[in-house]
Amino acid sequence: MPNIKLTIEYDGTDFAGWQRQKNGRSVQEEIERALAQITQKSVTLVGAGRTDAGVHARGQTANFKTDSQLSPLDYFRALNGLLPDDIAVTEAVEVGDDFSARYSAVSRAYKYTILRRPSALMRRYSWQLSYDFNINLMREAASVIRSTSDFQAFCKVEAEVDHYRCRIDEAEWHEEEDGTLILSIRANRFLHGMVRALVGTMVDVGRGYTTIGDFCWIIESKDRRHAGQAAPPQGLCLISVHY
Amino acid sequence: MPNIKLTIEYDGTDFAGWQRQKNGRSVQEEIERALAQITQKSVTLVGAGRTDAGVHARGQTANFKTDSQLSPLDYFRALNGLLPDDIAVTEAVEVGDDFSARYSAVSRAYKYTILRRPSALMRRYSWQLSYDFNINLMREAASVIRSTSDFQAFCKVEAEVDHYRCRIDEAEWHEEEDGTLILSIRANRFLHGMVRALVGTMVDVGRGYTTIGDFCWIIESKDRRHAGQAAPPQGLCLISVHY
Asked: What is the ipTM of this complex?
């Protein structure tokens, strides 16, 4: 049975998240509905990462198995014709039978964008903060994250997981010419709410509300209540998934 | 009486254009209403360029005179606090009494973005075209534009103007890594609908529907009916106004 891998871009603004759910519009459901229309059969889509409500994706990946004999290019064209315009399929390829977008993934990369000036064009895709930061302190916090392995302090409490260990491959703040700050973070896995909790806490460090010592203590406490407020979803984007 | 110059960014998606009008929401009206609230007086805003419905701006400029004694920083803060989030004031400065955002402007710069892949995140800010172009032909058309001075063939017929002469300072297509095409065009003035008519006609050249010879003939005909269809507004952005 052919196994098709999709790369998907979406504007998370009007979605309740990636995952199918009882109340609210989800990306998974929209694509599954379009696939059912194309194949005339019920299709289950396995996504690499469950992005939250309001979070965007430039390179989400997902796969589905089907006995329909359409080519990847057929799926690419038919999906882009049928999907609402806040979802786009940027690639469709056939993959091996044992490929799973979720379990075969080696790492996921996210970006978080903080804008430091008023903007009408970036408001849907950034967190706009006008106060001053010490970017060097935020970079120090990022270097602490790079040598951290247990992220329980940055995980939503209701999350059902076996353990809280993540291998961080990249965690770096870049500052653009106009002062925009972008966190690039890549890891083998991310816990629920982890990037937004990390960004909120690093912003507290940049503002001087939390010292680097406190930041290390928060990590060691393994208690979500000690970390900062979650940064808002619209600044977050799933950039790519690596296999 | 202090004369205040504003630099303004807006997302044109939900506007009927810059200019105040009877039916439809305009950027000018929203800002004038906010200024009236701040100064408790009626304020008239003079804009540098009248962008059409759906066209965006990163650096529109406008000025107003007022006997209110607020500082430019006060206006900056109060406007960004009061304005809807699809308008942002990015700068407010006091200028000389004879400054007019419209009549003092030396040139205006626009960008037009053509995306050649499906995208959910750029759909509000680009024209998405999946067919093939010859970018070299489009560059040739741009070089013809650089040595053209009469643009009547690219002007909406109802426009009330004395003459159709424009001095083109820049007209250049850039191709980005992912195939995105961006026209950067700067001129002392633009006629109504001019950039979108030029882009539509240059796309016809890139697709091979219109030869460079035909393109020159269209210009010489001075007849809007000979030029191509107007490119859609969402790909167009007023980048800056120079004084």
From this structure: 0.89
